[in-house]
Amino acid sequence: MEFKQFILKLSLQSRLCAFLFVAGILIKLTISFSFSSTYTNNFFLPFVDYFISSGFSNPYQQFASGSIEIFPYPMLMLVILSMPKILFSWVNASPELSILIIKLPLLCADIAIFYVLKSWLNHKHLLKLILLYWFSPVLIYISYIHGQLDAIPIALLFVSLYFLFHNSLKASAVFLACSMATKTVIVAIMPMLLIFLLSQRLPTSQIAKFIAISVGSFLLINSLYLFDASFLSMVFNNQQQSKLLLSTIQFGEVSLYLLPLAYCAILLKGLSFHTLNKDIFVMFLGFCFAMLLIFTQPTQGWYFWLLPFLFYFYSKSSSRAFLMVLLLQLAYISFFVLHEFPSEDTAIPSTLAINLSFTFLQVLLIFNCYWIYMYGLNKYSQHKITSVPFLIGVGGDSGSGKSSFSNALVDIFSANKSSQLHGDDLHKWERGNDNWSKHTHLDPKANRLHNELRILKDLLNGKTVYREKYNHNTGKFDKPFPVSAPNLLIYEGLHPFFLERQRALFDLKIFLNPSAELNAAWKIARDTKSRGKSKEDVMNQINHRADDAKSYIQSQLKFADLIIEPFLESEFNGQLPEDLCYKMILPNSFPMDKIFEIFSYYPELILEHDFLNDNEQIICVKGVFSPANLALLAYEHIEGLQELGISRPNWPSNAFGVIVFIVTYMVFEEAEHAR
């Protein structure tokens, strides 16, 4: 019954959102048909009509003798506006219908922006997004009443960001080029985009390829008119661009340009962050556009560059601060109505009224940017994982599943957001050294533990270290390689909690503790398949190491925050099972009610819970569960993954997948606790 109520609630909400979305489309089509503007009638339509009717002759040359402000857009904008006119050329269109047709790309762009924003939010924020973005009076006025084209480059930019956050760099670069090929102002975000790519620790070759594809695609799109003087004059030397350097402070005969100054300050602030997660990056992109509005007298369409970014953050906010963005829109409408239709009949002189309304508009603009900054900054600093690396220690005996569990976490957080250190790299000697006859690999004296302590400290302090890697295939150390700590740093090994000072560094300590039979079966399977050993050799090694395992490995179990015990419900027959059950022992201070609520709607999964004592609680996980369902639940309940820009985590299946889910959930909870 509870499950049916849950589904019904989701269904009703989805139906409401779908109804509002369709209603918004109908409203926008009606407005497009009913309203036009000087820009549409006298500028855009004649420009596009000439391009089509002349057999695609150069319209920039044709209109260059008039105002160069008639179409200050690159080639792709012309193509996009021409497409619906060409597709509907068979229609004997009235003037009103012609205006509607030319606005269809604006509606498509509007929908694209909405769906990208929707993909960044879970469904509980969807209704607020629809109300804020889809029914924004300012955005409706800009696109469908005033007929400005700014929705198109912003839509292409958002699609580029969508692919960027899905690690599709080539597609992102192409759409970024398309965005710049519809409005050259988009180039303003390139430095911040470069900072973001660098913060993701991408190889230099990938970043260079991204830039090359972006620039090359832009030049290719505009290649037809790239060397035409009229095109260059209209697109790159128009009046709107000259506004960018009007705000100055005079020092004698020298002028200080405020907009470049503010822009550089934003870039420097972006560089100061340990890592730019998705939300912080999106916030800074919005600020790049906001500076254009603050330090210039903007035109109507320029506010389309900023508002979608504001709406994204306000949709996520649970506070009533979004009322400020509604006031911003009211101030926008007041200013531009007064600016376009000044009245001398009022008690307040027209010029004074315009200046007051503009002042009010700028104050609200600055306040909204400040609120978004504080909201984003608080969210960033709220979780340790976003501001500084979150360090997980994974311990256990040889063959206990440490690497498998650590690899599963890396699959969730992605290689760009996580780094992994292996304790085996600390061995003092290579294979064949005489010292191995005196010590086992489990003996702390055979490992450089204090060296690891220094490395972890350096990584947590933001340094890049060079580290040798022990190659199990050759038994030798490979060449040192660079390691840096992004958002999540995982250390897995035999002795993660052996040193007190090292234990103190971990934000979460996990110990894998399978039964002796299961541990032995895993070790035999691993060593015989990947390390070329016989079953007899592995069993002899296990027996030889038994005392050290008890003294040096199992003794660390008491320091763990979380103990994971894989087990079989049936008697172990020596064969490796495909699916296991899991016990998880953790502090009783960690609230599990939310976890049980999340999985309560899935009867195929069994979660059992009990308190062991005053300090510990135990969870038992059994049953089947699909990675697809885990992905849906994570999207809904682990928002930190989305904020980091992790869009497609690779979840394991069944009970193990649920365990990884719970640990991931705990990581963000503990990160917030440790802020």
Topology:
Layout: H1 2-34, H2 38-53, H3 59-63, H4 75-87, H5 95-120, H6 126-134, H7 137-145, H8 151-165, H9 169-180, H10 190-199, H11 204-221, H12 229-236, H13 239-242, E1 248-251, E2 254-257, H14 258-271, H15 278-294, H16 307-316, H17 323-340, H18 350-382, H19 384-387, E3 390-396, H20 402-417, E4 418-422, H21 449-460, E5 465-471, E6 476-483, E7 488-493, H22 500-503, E8 508-512, H23 516-530, H24 535-553, E9 562-567, E10 581-587, H25 593-599, E11 605-611, E12 616-623, H26 627-637, H27 639-643, H28 654-673
Parallel strand pairs: 3-7, 3-8, 4-7, 8-9
Antiparallel strand pairs: 1-2, 5-6, 9-10, 10-12, 11-12
Please give a structural write-up.
There is one protein chain. The chain is an alpha/beta fold and 675 residues long. Helix content is 57%, strand content 11%. The protein has an eight-stranded mixed β-sheet. The two termini are 40 Å apart.
Summarize this entry quickly.
Helices cover about 55% and strands about 10% of the residues.
Mean pLDDT metric: 87
Structural class: alpha/beta
Q: How many domains?
A: 2
SS summary, helix count: 28
Strand residue content: 5-15%
- Tell me the radius of gyration: 30 Å
- List low-confidence stretches: none
CATH class of the largest domain: Alpha Beta
Identify the CATH architecture of the largest domain: 3-Layer(aba) Sandwich
Question: The CATH topology of the largest domain, please?
Answer: Rossmann fold
* Apparent shape: elongated
Helix content: 55-70%
| Strand arrangement across the biggest beta sheet | 4-7-3-8-9-10-12-11
User: What's the CATH superfamily of the largest domain, by name?
Assistant: P-loop containing nucleotide triphosphate hydrolases
Tell me about the biggest sheet?
8 strands, mixed
Beta-strand segment tally: 12
Distance between the termini: 40 Å
